[in-house]
Each structure stands twice: as structure tokens, then as C-alpha cells.
Amino acid sequence: MNLDKIVIVLSRPEESRNIGAVCRGMANNGIHTLRIVGDRNSIDVERVHILAIHAGYIFDRAEFFDSITEATKDCVCAAATTRRKGKKRGGKLFLPEEFASMADTVTGTKASEGGKVAVVFGNERTGLEDDEVNECTMGVTIPSSDEFGSLNLSHAVQIISYELFRKNDTKRTGYTPVSLERLDKTVGTISDSLRKIGFFSRTGSEAMEQFWRTVLSRASLTEGEAQYIEKTFDKAAGLAQSQCPKDERRLEIQL
Length: 255
Prior knowledge:
Layout: E1 6-11, H1 16-28, E2 33-37, H2 45-52, H3 56-60, E3 63-65, H4 68-71, E4 75-81, H5 96-107, E5 116-121, H6 130-133, E6 138-140, H7 153-168, H8 180-196, H9 205-219, H10 223-243, H11 246-254
Parallel strand pairs: 1-2, 1-5, 2-3, 4-5, 4-6
Helix pairs in contact: 1-2, 1-7, 5-7, 8-9, 8-10
């Protein structure tokens, strides 16, 4: 994902403070390109900066256009944020995470590759009108309660921007869990260790192995954690055998 190729487009925004809050939400998620369909002279810059806090520079650099078509003409695609499917959407509205995956593919990772992706947000009171939705090439929707489905403009921008940021932010995923194939080695170590100390004389190994596989897969172990568990059971089995009388150990081997 190249966040420098994400373009946030606000169509006909009315409240200057909302624009400032949008700028702050964009900056929170590493997105800096803002385009506005409307007249710059109708916006109270001071009120924008009050809500933008330290992200006012995003508004200061914003470009203004007469239409969504003009604002998105250099983009590969333009996604309308809407609950309306529109006549040209084919009944498909992406969820934010689905849209982020698509944008990840389109924008690429280097400045020399990929293309720009626009996300278009409508007026605070009316949202995007049907003709504005139809100026876009796809739709993205943020699920919300039927009781009160309308989201604040800056909140909507924050949600979409966050999904894009998370798709881009691979360094913050924490760790890579071991695969099921790798997990089976850990389960095998546990099973072998328990067998060595005679645990399966009363409990079936197959059921126990399935138990550990199910529990440990939910835990999403790291490689280091898997190795630690293996060493723990290996050592426990070794200690148990070393303390077991020789005749009992011979009996266990015969069994």
C-alpha cells in the first residue's frame, strides 16, 4: 500500500470544523492528499485549523474542484462512500476492509508503480447524491445500525483511513503465527512426551492430540512460543523418566 496515492475527496462540505476534523483523521493514518469539491472562499480557515490541531497543513495544501469527475480524473478508481447502491454499482458495495485490500493492489508500494485511489465523501446533511455516486467507479459502505445509520463525516473518513492504514502498516501486525503444519510438530512433541511418562495408559492419544491442536491453533503461537512449549514437555518427560524406577521404565517400554 502506498498511502501517498490515497486521495480523500470531500464533496460540498458545509461545516468548516468538520473539514478540520477530517484533516486530523487523515494525519492520524498517514494520508495527506485532500481534494474538495466546492469553493475555498466559503470555508472558514480559522475554524478548520481549530479542529485540525496540528494537521491544518493538509487543508492548506488541499486542491479545489468543480466536480467529483474533475477531482478524480487522475485516479485509477474512485470509491463513493454511501449506503445507496446506485444504478451503476451492480448491487456491489465493498466493506472498508475489502476496499483496503483492493486499494493495496492498485497503489503498489513504490512511487514509480501503481496508481491513485480516491475515496469520495458527501455532504454532511445529504451524503452523496445519486448523480455524485454515479461519477464514481465503485462504492464502499460502512455498516451501521438501522436505528441511526448516518455517520459524522470525520468519523467516516477516520474509519476508511484506518482500514487503509492498517493494510499498509505491516510492521505493526505484531508477529506471524505458526502454520498448522508447524503446529503439528509441537502437538507431536506434547503427545510423545506424555506417552513417555505413561499418560496414555488411561487416555487416548488421538483425542488428546486433537485437543492440543484445537487449543493451540486458537492461541496463534509464535515460533518462539512453539519451541518453548516443546522444550518444556521434552524436559518434563526427561525428568519423569529419570526419577522412575528402572523396572517400571522397562514395563512402560514393553507396553
